[in-house]
Amino acid sequence: MSANTGASENTSIDGVEVMALSVEAIEDLVGRALSHRASPEQIERVEKELGRYPRGIVAVGASCVCGNPLAVITRPLLPGGIPFPTTCYLTAPEAVKAVSQLEAEGRMAAWNEALAQDEDLRVGYGRAHRTYLAFRRALAQGLGDDESHIEGVSAGGMPSRVKCLHALVAQSLVMGEGVNPVGDQTLAEVKGLFDPVVCRCERPWGCAEGQGAGPEGR
């Protein structure tokens, strides 16, 4: 999925720039998610990645070049009526590990300092927040979910703080480059450890259980 179709920094409502993707691009992403639901095989792989069953999974939003899920799209209302704001959820172990290393090094504090000083970054980050909300709203409408309990809440600390780089990277992977400036830059910073176009998966898609990647996949 993760195709940034119709990306636009000029999308406006009543003359005010509000989103990083056009309404049409958001509807296209959501439409593809709803028409290409996660398969049993994909759900099984995500379960192995997370170590638990991925409740509320709608679709795989971004995949490694080998086909392994990198990030999933989760419904706004989990089974049992539990509100879930983190619509774009990072699952790939290699990505999670790489981003966790940045967090451990204090990168979020640096981002929060940058947000306080850089007006362009604040504008872009706010735009990413509103795009996230629009994406989830369209998803909720398509699924018939009630998102009233999480209205206005996106993920990762948006729009005013950076609290979880994993969530921001997941948005970048699902919605494409140019949507979330923090997620995009984080992906650039971890490129030596994780890159969606380079397979470093312990078990690439299609490998039998117990078989790891060959030298060409490292």
Characterise the protein shown here.
The chain has 218 residues and is α+β, with helices and mostly antiparallel strands. The protein has one domain. The protein has seven helices and seven strands, in the order ββααβββββααααα. The strands form three sheets. A three-stranded antiparallel β-sheet has the order 3-4-7, with helices on both faces. Strands 1-2 form a two-stranded antiparallel sheet. Strand 3 and strand 4 form a beta hairpin. Helix 1 packs across helix 5, helix 4 packs across helix 5 and helix 6 packs across helix 7. It starts with 6 loop residues before the first strand and ends in a 29-residue tail after the last helix. It holds the Pfam family DUF501. This is Septum formation initiator family protein. It comes from Bifidobacterium actinocoloniiforme DSM 22766.
Enumerate how many helices there are, as a single number.
7
The gross shape turns out to be: globular
Low-confidence stretches: 3-16, 210-218
Placed side by side, the strands forming the largest sheet appear as 3-4-7
Please give the domain count.
1
Radius of gyration from CA coordinates: 17 Å
In quaternary terms, these chains amount to single chain
Structural class: alpha+beta
Count all strands and give the number.
7
Order of helices and strands: EEHHEEEEEHHHHH
Strand content: 15-25%
| Average pLDDT rating | 89
Q: What is the CA-CA span between the terminal residues? A: 23 Å
Report on the biggest sheet: 3 strands, antiparallel
Helical content stands at 40-55%
Protein name: Septum formation initiator family protein
Pfam families: DUF501
InterPro entries: DUF501
